[in-house]
Amino acid sequence: MAKSATTSRKPSENTKNELTLPIKSAKTYHDVKNYAWLAKPWVAESAITEIVGTHKEAGKTTFILRGLLRSILEGAPFRDAPTQKSPVLYLTEQQPAILKKDLIAAGIIEHPDLNMLQWHDVADVKWQTVAAKLRHNVAVLKAKLVVVDTIGAFALAQGDSENDSATALAAIRPLQLLASDGVSIIIVRHERKAGGSTARAGRGSTAFGAAVDVLLRIRRRGGKG
User: Fold this and answer.
1) CB 103: neighbour CB atoms within 10 A?
2) pTM for the whole thing?
3) Alpha helices in the chain (DSSP H)
4) CA distances for 51 relative to 12, 34, 87, 219, angstroms
5) What is the C-alpha separation between 212 and 175, in angstroms, rounded?
6) Which of 25, 68, 104, 224 is most deeply packed, by most CB within 10 A?
7) What proportions of the chain, in percent to the nearest 5, are helix, strand and coil?
8) Are the C-beta atoms of residues 86 and 72 closer than 8 Å to each other?
C-alpha cells in the first residue's frame, strides 16, 4: 500500500509581506506620553469627549461656546483650571442667524482662531469623506480641538438608524483616526427621553458612549438654577 506523504510549504516572500502587522513590544509604550489636557477634566489630547443634554434645554451650546471654546481660544482658565490655547474647528447644525446670535453672546464672533463648518454646506457629502478631509484641514489650521455639534446631523445619512450599533461605530471611526493625530474632539448628542445613566443617556445606540473617552452629561438644576 502506498503511503501518503504530507508536505509543508513555506509561505512565499509576498505572502509574508501581506501578513505583516505593526506589532510592538509592550516596553515600547514606556515612552508614550501621558494624556495632556486641553481643558482638565473635560477635554484631553488624542481623546474624544461626548457631551449629552436635552434638546434646547440643557445648555450644551452655552457650555461649549461661552465656556470651553472661549477659554481655549484665549488660553484662559475654565472653571478654575488652566487650558491650552488653540485654534478651534467647530462643526455645527445651527442655522446662520441662530449661530450668529450664539457667537455674539459668547463674545467670539470675531475671533480669528475660530473656524466654522455648517452642516448644510456638506449635507450632500458622505460623512466618511468629510471626516477624511477634516484631518487635512485641522493640520492646516493647527487646531487642537474639533467640535461636532451634533454627531447625528453630520454622520447619520437619511434613513440611517441612530439606534444601530454598526452605524454608530461607523460614525465614530473617522474621529478616532483624527484623535490619533493628537487632536481633541468633542461630539454632541441629544439626550433620550427615557434618560438613564450617563453612559446610556445619549439618544441612539450606546455604542456612541462606549467608543468615546470622556462622558459628560449636562442638565439644568431644579428651580431657578
Assistant:
1) 21
2) 0.83
3) 13-19, 60-61, 70-74, 96-106, 127-141, 151-155, 165-179, 207-211
4) 50, 23, 20, 11
5) 10
6) 68
7) 40, 20, 45
8) yes
Report the distance separating Cα 155 and Cα 125, nearest Å. Answer: 10
Query: What cell numbers appear for 63 in the block?
Result: 457650555
Query: Does residue 167 contact residue 173 with C-beta atoms inside 8 Å?
Result: no
Name residues whose C-beta falls within 8 Å of residue 174's C-beta, 6 or more positions apart in sequence: 127, 128, 131, 132, 134
Asked if 164 contacts 205 with a C-beta cutoff of 8 angstroms, the reply is: yes
- How would residue 209 be classed by pLDDT, with cut points 50, 70 and 90? confident
Query: What backbone phi and psi angles, to 5 degrees, belong to 44?
Result: -115, 150
**Grid cell in block for residue 135:** 484631518
Tens digits of residue pLDDT in 56-106:
666 888 899 999 999 999 999 999 999 999 999 999 999 999 999 999 999
Report the chain's C-alpha Rg in angstroms.
22
Q: How many Cα atoms sit within 13 Å of 205 on the Cβ side?
A: 21
- What CA–CA distances, in Å, run from 112 to 74, 108, 176, 200? 11, 9, 27, 37
Unique residue bearing C-alpha cell 513555506: 10
Strands 214-218 and 43-44, how do they pair? unpaired
Question: Cell numbers at residue 150, please?
Answer: 451634533
- What DSSP designation does 199 have? G
